[in-house]
Task: structure prediction
Amino acid sequence: MKVIKTQNYETLSKEAAKIFIEIIKKNDKAVLGLATGSTPVGMYKELIEANKNGLDFSKVTTFNLDEYIGLSKDHDQSYDYFMHDNLFNHVNIPEENIHLPKGDGENPEEDAKKYENMLKESGGVDIQVLGIGVNGHIAFNEPAEELKVETNIVNLTESTIEANARFFNSEKDVPTKAITMGMGSIFSAKKILLLISGENKKEAADYILRSGKIKTECPASLLHLHPDVTVIIDKEAFGE
Ligand code: PGA
Result:
């Protein structure tokens, strides 16, 4: 696990974008694994700038990690909407190259299987960006005794619902279920970029970077087992 420490969120975003840009420059058909949440937004802004300055996204493919169950694509808190608002509407990625798990299907379990198959058929994600939950989750793989391997349907933990309530009118409006890539789906990416920003992530960051241990109760800690992970962490999250 390679660790890059940055002074602040802005430099974290620039470092992260640099790594994505390098990959796209090397391979204009790169398969990008994308994430929602506030952490990658700065990196997406940098990618939009790079696109304006000539970096071509017309042949890349994207796969997102997760989606709320019960929200349609046009709901302003759906991850589909978020991704269009923060990235897809501003770069030249063709709509047909964009993949997100379906949150409002008749049969979520079936949709999870289909998504996993699409991911496999893509030939694998070249680079996956991840944020981290205050509880150490990655995508919606919540702390638990056992973690799922493939894309599946999960119940969100109370702490995740609380953390995400800031985006909804009230906590009761936050969906309680999500469709998410599993740990195996995430680990199938050739390269993983974990972004950790802000003081509220310090406890999870400490466990991952200082304990020398892994546990399923901190899903992100299992990233120590992946052969190509870069963590970019800002001072607030890393501490002294
Ligand atoms: P955040 O969410 O980037 O909004 O902090 C990250 C996550 O919950 O995975």
In short: The mean pLDDT is 97. Residues 37-39, 131-133, 137 surround 2-phosphoglycolic acid (CB under 6 Å). The helical segments are 9-26, 41-52, 79-86, 108-121, 158-164, 183-187, 202-210, 235-238. The chain is about 30% helix and 20% strand.
